[in-house]
Design brief:
rRNA (guanine-N2-)-methyltransferase activity; alpha/beta; Rossmann fold; VC0802-like; THUMP_dom; elongated; methyltransferase; RNA binding; about 25% strand; seven-stranded mixed sheet; 14 strands; 10 helices
Length: about 375
């Protein structure tokens, strides 16, 4: 059994722990910005392929007392790197955390890299090159007070970058956050889903992938573990085949998205094509003022602009008031979820929320507000 850690956006630790358990992980333990868990190699591949919420899945190699740069160098050299890295493979080091003596992550990463390549030179007479963009082996070191934890990053590029979304709007929602919001809402695939401010379509697309049981990792070019020394290609191919075989052919209820901007609807259609759901999800150019409920009940979901990156010069309070009026007057019998990072603007909606869930959009504290529309 290997020890793993799934990194996740702040505030979603309990949610990712639940997802990991559903995927078959053992000894799941939520921590700060992630959850520790245990499992075999098949689980590592499966979690990378299927998990909708994490950014990265780290495999723990070693932990040791570490007060200063010399402790760090010695601790890194105590690992036999030939098991994980040969000189023909490239490496990159990512450092997080700090203590009194190791308080600069760039220096920490450099010290780790030096310890590894010095060991290679001493043992083999040659060393790995550094590739910060697409390394064969990505090493993660985390300093927490007087302890250093060393891991291999099995994901490569962040898992939130599904690979289906080259086209994004002006203020895109991360795919992993969209999936988390859908999970937090309690939406079920037998309920209609509608986003009237869909931008490049992230919320409807993540809902579609969930409803059709499509593994989000299927659209990626590669995972970090594919260039590891012990990569098991036949096992990974079996997991991909099983994932493809488990997809559903039809939606249980419609999933719609609309937006006032024709250009972003075109982006949404490109993204839907890339993840193979264009025949399932419906996108259309509609002004918010013209939006009407397409069914008697369902879940309406939206991430309106809240002044951080969009619409600084526009009348956002008026826009939020219009959103509130549209929901109140035209969506009776529905449940609405609105993500907002601006408390003042959210009050302009003019509806009483039945629930508020604190979430982070990047570093911005936000609230997911639930409205029961009678």
């Amino acid at each position: 059994m290997n020890q793993y850690f799934a990194t996740v956006a702040r505030g979603l630790e309990a949610l990712v722990a639940q997802e990991l358990e559903q995927l078959g992980a053992d000894a799941v333990e939520p921590g700060f910005c992630g959850a520790a868990f245990a499992g075999d190699r098949a689980l590592l591949y499966r979690v990378n392929l299927w998990a909708r919420l994490p950014f990265r899945i780290l495999m723990k190699l070693h932990g040791f007392p570490c007060r200063d740069a010399q402790d760090l160098y010695n601790g890194i050299q105590s690992i036999d790197w030939s098991s994980y890295l040969t000189p023909d493979r490239t490496l990159a080091v990512n450092a997080t955390g700090k203590n009194d003596h190791l308080n600069h992550t760039h220096f920490t990463a450099l010290q780790v890299k030096n310890a590894i390549v010095d060991q290679q030179q001493a043992m083999l007479g040659e060393r790995s090159d550094v590739d910060l963009q697409e390394p064969d082996v990505r090493i993660n070191v985390h300093i927490d007070q007087d302890t250093c934890t060393v891991s291999l990053d099995s994901s490569g590029n962040s898992l939130h970058r599904r690979g289906y979304r080259p086209a994004v709007g002006a203020a895109p929602l991360k795919e992993s956050l969209a999936a988390a919001l859908i999970q937090l809402s309690g939406w079920q695939p037998d309920q209609m889903f509608y986003d009237p401010l869909c931008g490049s379509g992230t919320l409807p697309l993540e809902a579609s992938l969930k409803a059709l049981n499509i593994a989000p990792g299927l659209f990626r070019d590669r995972f970090g573990f594919e260039t590891w020394r012990d990569f098991d290609l036949s096992l990974f191919e079996q997991l991909i085949q099983a994932a493809e075989a488990s997809q559903r052919e039809t939606l249980a209820a419609p999933i719609w998205g609309s937006d006032r901007e024709g250009a972003v609807i075109e982006q949404a259609i490109v993204n839907a094509t890339n993840c193979g759901v264009l025949n399932h999800v419906w996108f259309s150019q509609i002004e918010l003022n013209d939006v009407v409920a397409p069914a008697d009940s369902g879940v309406v979901f939206c991430n309106p602009p809240y002044g951080e990156r969009l619409g600084r010069d526009s009348d956002l309070a008026g826009f939020y008031k219009l959103l509130g009026n549209v929901l109140k007057q035209r969506f009776k019998g529905w449940t609405a979820f609105v993500l907002s990072g601006n408390k003042e603007l959210s009050q302009s909606i003019g509806l009483k929320s039945s629930q508020r869930i604190a979430v982070y959009n990047g570093t911005l504290p936000c609230q997911l507000m639930k409205y029961e529309l009678y």
